[in-house]
User: Fold histidine kinase from Vibrio vulnificus.
Amino acid sequence: MSLVSRWSGYRFFLFMLLLGGIGLTVTHFAASHYQQNKWASILKNYADRANQQLSSELAKFEQIPNLLSHDPRLLTYLTQPESNGLNQLLAEWSKQTLADTIYLHNQQGVVIGSSNYQQDDTFVGEDFSFRPYFIEAMQGHIARYVALGIRSNKRGYFYSAPIWLENKIAGVITVKVSLEELENSLAPERADIMVLDQNNVVFLSNQATWRYTALAPIAPEHIEAMVQNQQYGSQAPKAHPSVQLGDPANPQAQQRTMPQHQLYLSATNDNGFRVVTLAAHQQRLMTVLQADVIFVLIFSLLSLIAFAWQQTLNNKRQLALLNKQLESKVKQRTEVLSESNQRLQQTIIQYEKTQQELKQTQQELTQAAKLALLGELSASINHEINQPLAALRTYTENSLKLMSMEKHQLVEHNLQQMLQLNETISEVIARLKIFTRKSTPDERHYYANLHDSVYSATRILSNKLIKSGVTLKVASIPPSLAANIHHIELEQVLINLIHNAIQALEGQADGQIVIECAIEQDACQLIVSDNGPGIEATKLAHLFDPFFTTKPEGLGLGLTISKRIIESYQGGLEAELHSPHGMRFTLSLPRLLSSDASTQEFV
Assistant:
């Protein structure tokens, strides 16, 4: 890359870095402002919904004390305390109105009847004269009050109404509404909620640790009254751990941002409550961070595209320059390659010619090896032919004499014997085809019966075996055992192995050759072993090398050709020293099953 291109790349990088920084800053502030407004709307909706739900639920019980106070039976129980049935009546009313507890006070504030009379924390006999809702009701007003139950230790909203006897107040009826279930239904999905009383003390919240904490300073006299009335127990409320409203004197709705939260403070409702919904800044910041990450990814992608486009332009200019230089080099190289191609074609032609000559030479060597073996066996073959020929002459001369004597039956007998002798000579000559036929395996499938092939090979060598005094033992070979090989070439290999063994056993009194058979699932083996002197272990590895021989008159091609013949049919020929002495040759061939043999070509 040239110096100009590098400088251009650095300038592009600095420009995109500056542009990305400005874009990220704008994106961050825009997303932050958007999320702040979005959460303000969400928190307001949460607060409005909670306010409406809270007011709606409490409104169901607001008029119940006033209605019950006009029931004349209550006056009877107030004026005649010994009357029975008050608790049962209050329990029935509590069940019908779904109120938590309904109870009746006398003028002194003592509870003389309660709907929870059967519970362990019953209000019957309790003195609630210090409770503001009783005091206000005794003054002739409909009272409402939120507090923690002294006996039940459960938060409740209390409605009280006076019971008039002529122009005097004879007692007070109180309805307690449970706030536990209502609290669970007020909690929003993605924010927190607090409901404040008139002193800004949290009496409802989905966060248990926030309950009974103050969000603003409380006047000492109010604290004293709260402790005296046991509104939230015997202790004064503590400050909220993370939210402080300062001076929330303004009863209107307010949006505020705290160090850890963004909150919405609703306006004071008819019950004197205010609802606070708040969300941690972490939620808003996560969304802003997502927007920042998306901007960075998109900007990075666009930067890569722009950089790639710029690099493409630079590369095109450099490519045009290199193309001119390349065209000149290509022209020069083309001329050189053209000359090399011509030389290569000539080399290939010469190689093919050499391969053809090599193949022809191999075939000629194979045939030469056959003829050499034929020469060695000629004496034995002459003997096999001369004996039948001499017999033919004798039968012919006898037949002529018998004909002159008109002994035709004897002449016919002689002629039959002559035919048998002729067939014997034909069989001997047919076996000689092994040594004259030039056969190379092609891709066809062949069929050779191992039993017949071993028999044919031993027949040819029978005379030589007798003359050399070597004993031949052939183990039982299944008559149906067949292999995929041309039967003439299999016989050629067997003749070569047996003939080599005969030569190795020359001059040995107890010479013995053993032919055995082994059968595997997909293969079959013929093992030819002898008890001759064997060869040195160091020469064993070279036994199948061309022109390697241990005989002065040998060509050293017999085993080489035999191995190649067997391997051409996907078989194998291996040699090893036979214990305690001698040689052992193992011939392996693909086995043909009876079902396969019927489809093979028999040659």
In short: The mean pLDDT is 80. The CA atoms of residues 167 and 194 lie 42 Å apart. Residues 441-597 form a domain with the Heat Shock Protein 90 fold (CATH 3.30.565.10).
